[in-house]
Write a structure and sequence with these properties.
367 residues; alpha/beta; two-stranded antiparallel sheet; 12 helices; 47% helix; 17% strand
């Protein structure tokens, strides 16, 4: 039990724990699945998703963006997602508004803020919101545990205080392309779904080269936005600096693939940690001889490797998320906890012996 208690202490974000090895301390949000995703993403085999194309606007102004949208209309894309918030009107927005009205299937962003009751209200919207009825709107917010946490999931819908439900930016794009996919996602009943990051790559086209890549844009999901905007960079399990547009691309790809993940209950990690921890300690108490220490270390390393490999296989091949944080910690520090216990017992025995000798000396001096 002392080893399990130590594992909870080390897993706390307020301590210098295992999470500090793999994530920045201020995040405090390490998951063992992050390690699996990093290993999987480092594989030489890459999956190129040609269904999704990114158009990088760089530092382009509204006239250039409007021209790009007009060209995209001629390229016959499946869906266009514009990841640009035109919050304020410009001096001459007629070209932009005309280009937006010509887009056949387009999604524009909305930003929301969460209220104390858990619902959301719209906080950021383009200046033409409710003026042009043709575009579909999707919530651009990226769900995370805190400001510095990694983006691991995407939202399906957001519930507004008014009772209305707004789709996320990704859900809105997928729904325009294939309504059956989003219907299936909603039937699962999850507010968030896990993004499948590892080994995915997407074609990125600079805004000035859109006309030259018409064939590559035809029939594709096209996301228009900036890949290098500092304020829109986020941490992910596979990259500590990824643009929001690229995260939406990974999320959309996961949704189109129907990559559904299931999460193992948290108590299973503690149960497995207890079983393996007691197994190691029981083995330590029964072994004796010169090879005892070596045997225990081999067993400890073997169980650690088996745990990591099991989590990796379950995550990649079976879409099952298993957070083995406590299991890894208890296997790492179980023998250390046993050494602490044995040391404490030794100190108590030494003190008892000293007390007994002192008592005998006092009795002898009195007589």
């Amino acid at each position: 039990m002392s080893a399990l208690s130590l594992s909870f202490l080390l897993a706390s974000p307020m301590t210098a724990s295992l999470s500090g090895i793999f994530s920045q301390p201020e995040r405090g949000d390490f998951r063992t699945t992050d390690l699996y995703a990093q290993v999987a993403d480092s594989r030489p085999v890459r999956q190129f998703d040609d269904r999704i194309v990114l158009v990088d606007i760089g530092l382009s102004g509204r006239e250039e963006i409007a021209e790009c949208l007009e060209i995209l209309t001629l390229c016959d894309p499946k869906v266009v997602g514009v990841d640009i918030n035109f919050a304020e009107p410009g001096e001459n927005d007629s070209l932009l508004l005309n280009a937006i009205s010509l887009l056949p299937d387009a999604v524009f962003p909305l930003g929301v803020e969460q209220n104390t009751d858990g619902d959301f209200t719209i906080s950021d919207k383009p200046f033409f919101y409710e003026k042009i009825k043709k575009p579909v709107y999707g919530v651009i917010n990226l769900p995370a545990e805190n400001e510095y946490a990694s983006i691991r999931e995407y939202a399906i819908d957001y519930s507004l205080s008014s009772g209305e439900r707004l789709p996320s930016f990704v859900t809105a794009m997928a729904s325009l392309g294939d309504r059956a996919i989003t219907d299936e996602a909603r039937k699962r009943g999850n507010q968030h779904e896990t993004i499948d990051y590892p080994s995915r790559e997407f074609r990125t086209i600079p805004i000035g080269d859109v006309a030259e890549h018409a064939e590559e844009l035809s029939g594709r999901y096209v996301i228009v936005g900036a890949t290098g905007e500092a304020s829109d960079m986020h941490s992910t399990p596979v990259n500590s600096y990824m643009s929001g547009m690229e995260i939406h691309a990974h999320a959309l790809s996961s949704l189109l693939d129907r990559k559904w993940y299931s999460v193992m209950p948290r108590w299973t990690d503690c149960l497995i940690a207890l079983i393996l921890g007691f197994s190691v300690i029981a083995t330590a108490l029964t072994l004796s001889g010169k090879t005892r220490g070596l045997t225990l270390r081999i067993l400890q390393v073997a169980l650690l490797v088996a745990t990591v490999l099991a989590g990796y296989v379950l995550y990649l091949d079976m879409n099952l998320i298993c957070n083995f944080t406590h299991t890894i910690l208890i296997l790492s520090f179980g023998l250390f906890a046993l050494d602490i216990w044995n040391g404490a017992e030794g100190i108590v025995a030494w003190c008892a012996t000293k007390y007994k000798l002192l008592k005998q000396q006092l009795c002898a001096s009195e007589s």
